[in-house]
Amino acid sequence: MAEDRTLADLKRQGSNRLVAGLCLAFFGGMVGMAYASVPLYAMFCQITGYGGTTQRVEQYSDRVLDRKITVRFDANVSGGLPWDFKPVARDVTIKIGETAQAHYTASNLFATPTAGRATFNVTPEIAGSYFNKVECFCFTDTTLKPGETLDMPVVFYVAPDIADLPEMKNINTITLSYTFFPIAEDKPVAAAPQAEAIPTNTDGNLGG
User: Fold this and answer.
1) Which CATH number applies to 55-182: 3.40.630.30, 3.30.1330.60, 3.20.20.450, 2.60.370.10?
2) Per-residue pLDDT at 46
3) Which sign does the torsion angle of CA 40, 41, 45, 50 carry?
4) Residue-wise pLDDT tens digits, 78-136
């Protein structure tokens, strides 16, 4: 009987260890997925244009259509960044597939250097995967000196395949929007306080 109980206890302990191991593996997998979700989501948006994410390309379009489309430019500043950020022109009308260049400017209104980083999106969101940027300033850390103004060009084109979308049949305007957020600069580490010297008598004994 004692041996039977011992075997049963060993089996029960082994089963408990197996369950604990599975729970640990599941927990670790969930944590890994949580950490991976942000870059994976960003990659998904970049590939599909989901959420109005534009595409970054290295080459220009090799096909230009007769159909025209208007691209509007929007500029925003968030998080208390003391910048005057705006497009030079509010919109441009181009042929689909035609490469165009737009300009934004950013001015630091603060008395000290400030830094920012821009995010972007396109509306309507379905146009994101067809809005191709050859050159842009997005996701680049930018530092401006007090009173400095910087020209920020964007080179882009709207892919001809957008004309095949039934959803874009009656849409003739796309809005490209940028938002600059502040970048927190590293603060210098405060020096450790110096301990006060303890006075001593001339004979070397502690004073007091």
Assistant:
1) 2.60.370.10
2) 44
3) positive
4) 999 999 999 999 999 999 999 999 999 999 999 999 999 999 999 999 999 999 999 99
| pTM beyond 0.70, yes or no | no
> What's the token pair of residue 188?
């210098």
DSSP per residue, the chain: -HHHHHHHHHHHHHHHHHHHHHHHHHHHHHHHHHHHHHHHHHHHHHHH-GGG--EE-SS--S---S-EEEEEEEEEE-TT--EEEEESSSEEEEETT--EEEEEEEEE-SSS-EEEEEEEEEESGGGGGGEEEEE--TT--EEE-TT-EEEEEEEEEE-GGGGG-GGGTT--EEEEEEEEEE-PPPPPPPPPPPPPPPPB-TTSSBP-
Tell me what pLDDT residue 138 has.
85
Residue 171, token pair as written in the block: 């849409």
Question: What is the DSSP pairing of strand 131-135 with strand 149-158?
Answer: antiparallel
Burial class (CB in 10 A: 0-12, 13-18, 19+), 28: exposed
User: Tokens at residue 91, please?
Assistant: 């919109």
